[in-house]
Design brief:
The complex is a heterodimer of chains A (197) and B (197).
Chain A: H1 2-49, E1 61-66, E2 69-78, E3 81-92, E4 97-105, E5 110-116, H2 128-131, H3 133-137, H4 164-195
Antiparallel strand pairs in A: 1-2, 2-3, 3-4, 4-5
Chain B: H1 5-10, H2 18-22, H3 26-31, H4 36-59, H5 69-91, H6 93-99, H7 110-120, H8 125-155, E1 157-158, E2 161-162, H9 177-196
Helix pairs in contact in B: 4-5, 4-7, 4-8, 5-6, 5-7, 8-9
The chains are: A alpha+beta (197), B mainly alpha (197).
Amino acid sequence: MVDMIKMVVVLTILSSFSGGVLATLRDNTSERIENQELNLVKGPAVRQILEGASNDPVADRVKMTVGEEEKTLFIGVFDGNANTVAFETTGKGYADKFGLVVAVNTDDDTLVGIGVTTHKETPGLGAVAKDDPTWAAQFKGLPISEPVAITNDGGSVNAISGATITSRAVCDAATDALKLYSDIKPQLLEQIKAVGK
Amino acid sequence: MAKSLTQEFTKGLWAEIPPFRLVLGLCPVLGVTTTMENGIGMGLATTFVLLGSNLIVSLLRKVIPAKVRIACFIIIIATFVIAVELLMQAFAYVLFLKLGVFIPLIVVNCIVLGRAEAFASKNGVVASIADGLGIGLGFTLSLSALGAVREILGTGTFFGIELFGASFQPFTFMVQAPGAFMALGLMLCGMNLVGSK
């Protein structure tokens, strides 16, 4: 009986102590973690796609609720016109889920660019989608009315050699993102108006 | 004490170097060693957990009831693993993204639990620290060596720096799963050849 009580007491004290330590640590790091994610992952991708914008798209971001999810929208101002919006979506790649930033021009509804953020694709094959800007450049100027697809599937994007699955996954994620964009465009325009002055 | 502290420390570097001599903890060994940087990062994260759990387990070895010792060890180990995960996200976010799921998997790494059960629960604090540090650094060395071999052959780079000219065609399979097994097997073979003399 004494043994029993000792076991329960030790386990309880140990668990609560470890819970307390971790909660404190989490509270102290959560802000830093969010900033890290913004600066190191989404930030560079957004800035690269929206190159030439007269504002800082990462600073001019707005949060918007889409369905149950909260999306962060990055607004780019070109020629004094806040007409470009970038946001992140996820897709299912060869190895795991990957993050994709998609930027759309709201004036003529064309793709401004895409950028892979987080991914676990094979280095040298699927990872080319992130590492080689010339591959991503193919997406520039595509109309949002048509699904984005690789040439094998009847689209206009040349697949990365040896990484058809990744290429297809990026196209699918982009297509989904564009669909989402079309759905939320009315609300989006109002949000953008607040930024572009 | 049967062995000196130096012996406790150095046994992890050669005589009991985890992946090669004990052939333990192969999941991260095969999974993350696609580059040298990943290998070092994973190794150091595991070292931190080993050191922390060895220290706490040996401090509490007289308090923890024998019947629930494994549960207690797991709580201690899991606490350190979550701590390392949060700290990596806050201070080494890019590395955290590359290592991904393998960081939480340190909890079930049998080296960590093995050292807690076989060593720290029976030995003093200082000896346990020496043991944890030695085994941890041995693990880091093995992962870096394997990472270096796979990175040089598989992508033709070392620490992300191009080693060969553009004409070099990398052995891409080296960065995939079969390459991991082959590289590990050949290194194991080499170590046994040297060790048997």
